[in-house]
């Protein structure tokens, strides 16, 4: 957790992926307890990849389970490189960190536990060189 760095961060967690790659059956689950759903929140996807990652983007399938059991499913595209092929985000050596906005000024409809489950949606299985994947939820300023 990185909550000590920023008071506005409610939740921030990465999952390290195996060196052999992110398999489609390896679903990443993040459980977040929203105690106060009144303020606006910003939600980000965190993607850490190697410089030799073979694609300019990353498709993921997101299943959100709400506190009342309702489920929603979305397909998301994470843009990792611009049209010129230049990596976005912050680079250090051959590793790139991306904090990709998913939702801005979101009001969670309910208090309680939300489960966010991510599955990689690329054609490669396993998907190579995605090192870590995570989610950050902050109070909007």
Structure notes:
This protein is mainly beta. The chain has one domain (9-139): Jelly Rolls (Sandwich), CATH 2.60.120. It is built from no helices and 9 strands. It has a 5-stranded antiparallel beta sheet, with no helix packed on it. It is globular, with a radius of gyration of 15 Å.
Low-confidence stretches: none
Question: Secondary-structure element sequence?
Answer: EEEEEEEEE
- If helices are DSSP runs of H or I spanning 4 or more residues, what is the number of helices? 0
**What's the helical proportion of residues?**
under 10%
Biggest β-sheet: strands ordered side by side in the sheet = 1-9-3-7-6
Structural class call reads mainly beta
Rg over CA atoms:
15 Å
**Could you tell me how far the N terminus lies from the C terminus, measured between alpha carbons in angstroms?**
20 Å
Please provide the count of β strands.
9
Shape: globular
Mean of residue pLDDT?
A: 94
Q: Beta fraction of the residues?
A: over 45%
Question: Biggest sheet: strands, sense, closure?
Answer: 5 strands, antiparallel
CATH class placement: Mainly Beta
């Amino acid at each position: 957790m990185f909550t000590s760095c920023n008071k506005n961060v409610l939740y921030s967690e990465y999952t390290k992926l195996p060196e052999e790659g992110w398999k489609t059956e390896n679903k990443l689950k993040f459980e977040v307890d929203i105690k106060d759903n009144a303020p606006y929140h910003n939600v980000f996807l965190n993607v850490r990849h190697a410089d030799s990652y073979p694609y300019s983007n990353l498709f993921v399938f997101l299943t959100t389970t709400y506190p009342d059991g309702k489920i929603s499913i979305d397909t998301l595209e994470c843009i990792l490189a611009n049209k010129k092929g230049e990596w976005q985000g912050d680079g250090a050596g051959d590793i790139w960190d991306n904090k990709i906005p998913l939702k801005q000024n979101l009001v969670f409809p309910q208090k309680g536990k939300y489960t966010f489950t991510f599955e990689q949606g690329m054609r490669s299985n396993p998907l190579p060189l995605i090192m870590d994947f995570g989610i950050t939820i902050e109070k909007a300023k």
